[in-house]
Amino acid sequence: MRILIWLLRAIVFVGLFGLAIKNSGPVELRLYFDTLWQAPLSLVVLGCFAAGALIGATAAFATLVRQRREIGRLHGQLKDQARRTADSPEAV
Question: In angstroms, what CA-CA distances link 14 with 11, 22, 45, 76?
Answer without folding.
Answer: 5, 12, 17, 51
